[in-house]
Design brief:
- It is a single chain.
- By secondary structure, the protein is of the alpha+beta class.
- The chain has one domain.
- Helices cover 51% and strands 6% of the residues.
- It has 10 helices and 6 strands; from the N terminus they run E-E-H-H-H-E-H-H-H-H-H-E-E-H-E-H.
- The chain has helices at residues 20-30, 33-54, 58-73, 95-107, 112-118, 120-131, 141-144, 167-170, 193-209, 227-244; strands at 7-8, 11-13, 92-93, 173-174, 187-190, 225-226.
- The strands form 2 sheets. It has a 4-stranded antiparallel beta sheet with strand order 1-2-5-4. It has a two-stranded antiparallel sheet with strand order 3-6.
- Helix 2 crosses helix 9 (193-209).
- It holds the Pfam family CxxCxxCC.
Length: 245
C-alpha cells in the first residue's frame, strides 16, 4: 500500500496533512474501488436492518456499527473523556446529523439557546461571512472557527451529546498516544473502510428520509455545514416563530 510521509496502517496523521486531498489519496491507495463499493452497500444494508430490528433511527444504527468496527478492527483508542483538543476546530455535518444532535440535546434537557449564547463569538464570525456576499465555496469555513470550542462542549471539556456526535468527530481518533495540544499531533483518519464510505451512507439515508416530492437526483453526497451554521439557522427559525406569535 502506498503511504504518505505522515501515515501508517491506522490512517493519515492530521498534523502532517496540508490538504484534504491527501486523505482521499490515502483511502484510494489503501482500498480498491470494488472494496469501497461493497463496504458501502454492506454498511447501508446493515444500518437499515439494525434500525428496523431495534426500532431506532438509521443514523443511530450507523453509529453503533461504526463504533463496533473501531472496537473490532483498530487498536485501542487513546482518546478519552476530557481530551478535547480536537473539539476546537470546525465540524461539518449533514442535516441528518444535525437533526440527530438536536434531538439528543432535547432528550438531555439541553437548551439550544444556551448553546447559542455561549457560542456567540464563533456564530458572529459565521454570520458575517454569510452576509458578506462572498461565494460560500471560496470561504475557508474551518478557519472561521479555528481555536473556538465546539458549541456542544461543556465546562469540563466533555461532549454533551457524545453518543450522537457526528461523523466528523467520530473519525478523528488517536491510537499512538493522547494528543497534547490543538495541533492534534497523534490524531489520524482513514484507517477504517467503514469510515471511508460512511459519508455516502449518510447521504443515502438522508435521501431516503426526504419526501419524494423534495428529492433531487442522488449523487452520493449530502450538503455539509458547520455546526455553527446550523445553530444560526435554528436561531433564525425560533425568532421567526416568536414574531408570528
Amino acid at each position: 500500500m502506498t503511504q504518505t510521509a505522515f501515515s501508517d496502517q491506522n490512517g493519515v496523521y492530521l498534523m502532517g496533512m496540508t490538504d484534504a486531498q491527501e486523505l482521499r489519496n490515502y483511502i484510494t491507495a489503501r482500498f480498491t474501488e470494488g472494496e469501497l463499493q461493497y463496504a458501502y452497500e454492506l454498511l447501508l444494508e446493515n444500518a437499515q436492518s439494525l434500525a428496523k430490528a431495534e426500532r431506532i433511527p438509521p443514523l443511530q444504527a450507523l453509529w453503533k456499527i461504526i463504533d463496533a468496527a473501531y472496537d473490532k478492527k483498530m487498536p485501542p483508542l487513546t482518546c478519552g473523556e476530557g481530551c478535547a483538543h480536537c473539539c476546537y476546530t470546525g465540524v461539518m455535518i449533514t442535516k441528518m446529523e444535525w437533526d440527530g444532535m438536536i434531538n439528543a440535546a432535547r432528550q438531555k434537557g439541553i437548551d439550544l439557546m444556551d448553546v447559542i449564547e455561549r457560542s456567540e463569538k464563533s456564530l458572529h464570525r459565521i454570520k458575517k461571512a454569510i452576509e458578506s456576499g462572498i461565494d460560500p465555496v471560496k470561504i475557508d469555513w474551518y478557519q472561521m472557527v479555528i481555536n473556538q470550542p465546539c458549541p456542544f462542549l461543556d465546562e469540563d471539556e466533555s461532549c454533551t451529546i457524545h453518543d450522537d456526535r457526528p461523523l466528523d468527530c467520530r473519525t478523528m481518533v488517536a491510537f499512538r498516544d493522547a494528543c497534547g495540544s490543538k495541533k492534534l499531533e497523534h490524531a489520524q483518519r482513514g484507517g477504517l473502510i467503514e469510515e471511508a464510505v460512511a459519508p455516502a451512507v449518510i447521504a443515502k439515508l438522508q435521501y431516503e428520509a426526504t419526501p419524494k416530492l423534495k428529492r433531487r437526483k442522488f449523487d452520493g453526497t449530502a450538503p455539509l455545514r458547520l455546526i455553527q451554521h446550523w445553530l444560526l439557522e435554528y436561531k433564525k427559525k425560533k425568532s421567526s416563530r416568536k414574531r408570528k406569535k
